[in-house]
Design goal:
Chain A: InterPro entries: Cyt_c_assembly, Cyt_c_biogenesis_CcmC, Cyt_c_biogenesis_CcsA/CcmC. The complex is a heterodimer of chains A (238) and B (43). Chain A has helices at 7-38, 53-80, 85-115, 123-148, 153-162, 165-175, 194-237; strands at residues 185-186, 189-190. Chain A has 238 residues and is an all-alpha fold. Chain A has a two-stranded antiparallel sheet with strand order 1-2. In chain A, a hairpin with a 2-residue loop joins strand 1 and strand 2. The longest helix of chain A has 44 residues, at 194-237. Chain A is globular, with a radius of gyration of 20 Å. Chain B is mainly alpha-helical. Helices cover 88% and strands 0% of the residues of chain B. Chain B contains 1 helix and no strands. Chain B has one helix at residues 4-41. The longest helix of chain B is centred in the middle third of the chain and has 38 residues, at 4-41. In chain B, 26% of the residues are buried. The chains are: A mainly alpha (238), B mainly alpha (43). The A-B interface holds A 18, 22, 29, 33, 37, 47-49, 51-52, 55-56, 59, 94-95, 98-99, 101-102, 105-106, 109-110, 112-113, 210, 214, 217-218, 220-222, 224-225, 227-228, 231-232, 235 and B 1, 3-4, 6-7, 9-11, 13-14, 17-18, 20-22, 24-26, 28-29, 31-33, 35-36, 39-40.
Chain lengths: 238, 43
């Protein structure tokens, strides 16, 4: 892990990896969406609205996975003082918040024709909304601490504590009565028919690669800004 | 209730979100790296 603590070494890896992840992710995500839109059969109970699963589930997965990424990077930042960990956590925040927002919006759009309502204050929807607000809080804290020039320890602690919400989201459909269906994909198997499952896996893989490319872009931007700040300080000293 | 408008809306929301995220991340990266390279080349 500490091999990549050197920003120059990290950039040598990130520069070719960014376009590779982006184009492969775009190809898979677009392919899965087209596959889901035009080639999967109509579902017996939900009708054609089942096609929303191909954008809703990847965005939910990445909204939650993004916060786990922030929590792990924050832990690495605080415990091992890895210089890139804090940058990685900050770079994950905006993509994670965007995917959480897409999950909430596509879920609401899906809820109207299937549940008859845009929104219910049940455990799953409310805990996902809390995750979105946690992202906003994290982004505000990280921006405030970077303006002061410190190492964003407060944001890192917030990132770790906020991870408590992830198992709550996961177990919410079991702990409380919910309009939302129970987990369809578990470690023990899947209750989703193979006709939907295959494009769903491709969509999750594609959006995950896109997410990785976006995080790398934001990390590269942050590292370049650090180089600019250091250069400006040297120029001011001279 | 017709399902097509809901499907179009869900995919449009995702498309717009992804487009905004991609453009903003790419521009931030290109601008910062270009400025950093320019400053490095200055004596």
């Amino acid at each position: 892990m500490h091999r990549f603590a050197n920003p120059a070494r990290f950039l040598r890896l990130a520069r070719p990896l960014t376009p590779a992840l982006f184009w492969l992710g775009l190809l898979l995500a677009l392919g899965a969406c087209l596959w889901g839109l035009f080639a999967v059969p109509t579902e017996r109970l939900m009708g054609d609205t089942v096609k929303i699963i191909f954008v809703h589930v990847p965005s939910a997965w990445l909204g939650m996975g993004g916060w786990m990424g922030i929590a792990i990077a924050s832990l690495v930042q605080l415990v091992w003082r890895h210089p890139l960990a804090g940058i990685a956590a900050r770079a994950i925040a905006v993509p994670g918040a965007t995917f959480a927002a897409i999950c909430l919006m596509t879920g609401s759009i899906w809820g109207r024709p299937t549940w008859g309502t845009w929104w219910v204050w049940d455990g799953r929807l409310t805990s996902m909304l809390v995750l979105f607000f946690l992202y906003l809080g994290y982004i505000a804290l990280a921006n405030a601490s970077s303006e002061k020039g410190d190492t964003s320890r407060v944001a890192a602690v917030f990132g770790i504590i906020g991870a408590v919400n992830i198992p709550i989201i996961n177990r919410s459909v079991i702990w409380w009565e919910s309009q939302h269906q129970k987990a369809s994909i578990t470690l023990g198997g899947s209750s989703i028919d193979g006709a939907y499952l295959a494009p769903l896996f491709v969509a999750v893989a594609g959006f995950s690669l896109l997410f990785g490319a976006l995080v790398l872009m934001r990390m590269r931007a942050a590292l370049a800004e650090m180089r600019i700040d250091a250069r400006m300080r040297r120029m001011a000293d001279d | 209730m017709p399902h097509l408008p809901f499907i179009i809306a869900a995919f449009s929301v995702t498309g717009v979100g992804m487009l905004w995220l991609t453009v903003s991340s790419y521009l931030a990266m290109r601008r910062s790296e270009a400025l950093a390279d320019d400053l490095r080349q200055q004596p």
